Amino acid sequence: MIKTSKLHFSYTTGTSFNFPDISLAEGDHLLLLGPSGVGKTTLLHLLSGLLPITSGTVTIGNTELNNLSRKKLDAFRGRQMGIIFQNDYFINALTVKENLALRLYFPDKLKDNARIKELAKRLGIFDQLDKKVIALSEGQRQRLSIAIALINKPNVIFADEPTASLDDENCEKVITLLKEEASNSTANLLIITHDLRVKTMFKNHLYL
Question: Vertex 84, ends 57 and 89: CA angle to 5°?
Answer without folding.
Answer: 115
